[in-house]
What we know:
Largest sheet: 6 strands, mixed
Number of domains: 3
Amino acid sequence: MSDPELExxxxxxxxxxxxxxxxxxxxxxxxxxxxxxxxxxxSLTVASKRIGQEIVCLRWDLDAIASDPxxxxxxxxxxxxxxxxxxxxLAEMSSGTIVLWEKMDRVVTPGSDLNHxxxxxxxxxxxxxxxxxxxxxxxxxxxxxxxxxxxVQPWDPFMTGHPAKAMESPVERRNTPSGILEVQCHVLPHKxxxxxxxxxxxxxxxxxxxxxGFYVYRNKRLLLAGGxxxxxxxxxxxxxxxxxxxxxxxxxxxxxxxxxxIDVRKSTARPxxxxxxxxxxxxxxxxxxxxxxxxxxxxxxxxxxxxxxxQAWHVEHLxxxxxxxxxxxxxxxxxxxxxxxxxxxxVKAMLRVIEETVPVQRIWLDTAENKDTPKTGFxxxxxxxxxxxxxxxxxxxxxxxxxxxxxxxxxxxxTEPFQKYPTLIANLGRSE
Length: 432
């Protein structure tokens, strides 16, 4: 920056927020750098240099302002005494800008140590990687960020292109009074489809449950990461475990700040009335798909050709609430009932006891506390017990039902939980 440009940049609120901005302008109020700096330090120095020009440097010092007997807001030229070395790197650069914080009274507090400071630095890096990820991505990013000489790696909240994603919708665009709105809906993979490292990273700075919902961007800069923007049918949706895989990207132009109630901190947003129904519909569809993926642990809920999966449990919707019933038509259950002949009543009584004693409250509590659904015996790759159970049921379909081997395999493909093991099913009944 030149001397006049730096003076304007260091002046609070120098720009009218109602003025039209360039489409790629990330600012609005002319307060961001100054207020963010004053929230962390009491002395802000900015030194800048344009190609072929001398270094210019201005400084705000809140302590000096507080002690000024005239009560003025005096801005100083040059760095503070003893701080000259911090701006010396500019002398070796053709152009550039250095922002220097001193007298830090928010991060560096009594009791702070190096470990505490390192944790804060890690958190800052995570936030930068999230907020600016779309500007940092790709082979030709808009700019680069470094923390302690290391490039900040962008964090993509949508796991774009991951083969296990349940949904990545086409980008939808809608003309609004304040410009074009872009929306893309995502349902992320279930934990069972991810490596431990992928799962941890995809959880983001706040964790899976907190990171669900809408991601509002302005000029590719993230303003709001998660939450449902007060939308919902009847009442506003909360962030719930069952919908934690749902994330929706919204891109708004900087001409939409007033309509979207973007505040000076750029940390809140509220959709205008004319797009709420549209966004609610998109969110409902995304939440529904995310809930199904979460409930079915990422496995398919349809068999070959789109045929429904024969589930072991059914849900009955009653006026008094939900009730879970064992599906007596499930091949494994039906085989046992039929094999018992005249004592089918005994088996059905046992099934009823199991249905009436499902520890629903305990499962719900364990899920809420552990932030994950409880494991089942058939999780992961098929072990010997899975193979044994599948083989028994396959033989039953051949003998009791009279199916051919191919017909039995097709039936197994439509039977929970064996639809998760297509390779195992394909090898059933085949000689080694």
